[in-house]
Amino acid sequence: MKISCGTDIIEIDRIKDSIENMGKPFLDRVFTDKETQYCESKNKQKYQHYAARFAAKEATFKAVSCILNDKYSITWKDIEIINDNLGRPQIKLYNFKQKDMIENIDISISHCRTYAVAYVVVLYK
């Protein structure tokens, strides 16, 4: 059994600038439709939620990168951050051939006015 972790922190203004400067192409490249709908529903705090999901995707990539190689890769949209019915963030992995190697994956996300941070722990079989 192996445990791997990943963490990421990002300035919310960096994501805000990317969204405002690149618009839909940036959103479509990085976020799934569910993620975009969720973040847009947060009105004035939407950039905090976009940044938190961006950090979560980076942290997830870092946590699973130990099983990636030249044959296997993962894209932004292969990682989806959604909330369960109690509001807790969850990670869904799509098109990820090594997904069966993962026994459990857990995430913690937080944000304030200026930063968003995410921490991911993966337990491998």
Overview of the molecule:
The chain has a single domain, classed as Ribosomal Protein L22, Chain A (Alpha-Beta Complex), CATH 3.90.470. It contains 4 helices and 5 strands. The chain has helices at residues 12-22, 24-30, 33-40, 46-64, and strands at residues 2-11, 79-83, 89-93, 102-111, 115-124. The strands form 2 sheets. A 3-stranded antiparallel β-sheet has the order 1-5-4. Strands 2-3 form a two-stranded antiparallel sheet. It is globular and about 45 Å long. The model has no long low-confidence stretch (mean pLDDT 93).
Offer a concise description of the structure:
The protein has 125 residues and is α+β, with helices and mostly antiparallel strands. Helices cover 36% and strands 32% of the residues. The chain is built from four helices and five strands.
List keywords for this structure.
125 residues; globular; single chain; 5 strands; Ribosomal Protein L22, Chain A; two-stranded antiparallel ribbon; alpha+beta
